[in-house]
Design goal:
five-stranded mixed β-sheet; 28% strand; 4 helices
């Protein structure tokens, strides 16, 4: 069975029964197919309607309890709102899971431009990584005016988010498995070969 350095699984907009069905099919396969130092990314969102609220990210994390939940990344997506009981849901949650405590993750390809570096009092170089700032766990880029003032928030599109997962979690020439992202497989294979 082929091993993958990174598995990206999109479970957005599935209800509880559909999530259970997908996890039942793939749960054991993931563990066998993911490299020991690999990362499993699960895209999901909170689902609500007029009658009930389903916390899919927490439900999925609990179902994947044989993995280590390292973080939950938030991806604001203002074009895709899931209308809920009280508030519209404009975010996608990305579960960052590993098999073991030691895993491969390279933050450098997804670092962002520093906005304070050249204007901060004292120019404290120790505070700034030469390749850019840590993207944090809210993946929303910003534009600034060059004087450390944010002038615009720039949501990343779906392709850019997938590419961030690939860029940060896959070693050169390693295998990536994309699930429920079939329409992008060819495109991402080309993107990854260029990285």
């Amino acid at each position: 069975m082929k091993k993958h350095q990174s598995i990206i699984f999109d479970l957005q907009n599935f209800d509880k029964n559909q999530i259970d069905s997908k996890l039942k099919i793939y749960l054991n396969k993931f563990h066998k197919q993911l490299e020991n130092d690999g990362i499993l990314w699960v895209f999901c969102n909170f689902i609500s309607d007029k009658k009930k609220f389903f916390p899919a990210p927490f439900y999925i994390a609990q179902k994947l309890s044989n993995y280590l939940l390292k973080n939950i990344i938030i991806h604001p997506n203002f074009e895709n709102s899931n209308k809920g009981n009280l508030f519209n849901n404009y975010i996608t949650n990305i579960l960052f899971l590993t098999k073991e405590d030691k895993y491969y993750f390279n933050k450098d390809p997804i670092r962002e431009k520093h906005i304070w570096k050249n204007v901060e009092w004292g120019k404290r170089k120790k505070n700034y990584h030469p390749k850019g700032k840590d993207p944090g766990n809210v993946w929303l880029k910003t534009l600034d005016d060059g004087k450390a003032n944010i002038i615009e928030h720039c949501p990343l599109d779906y392709t850019s988010i997938i590419n961030r997962c690939i860029s940060s979690s896959a070693k050169k020439n390693s295998s990536i498995l994309l699930l429920n992202i079939n329409e992008l497989k060819t495109k991402f294979k080309i993107l990854y070969e260029k990285i």
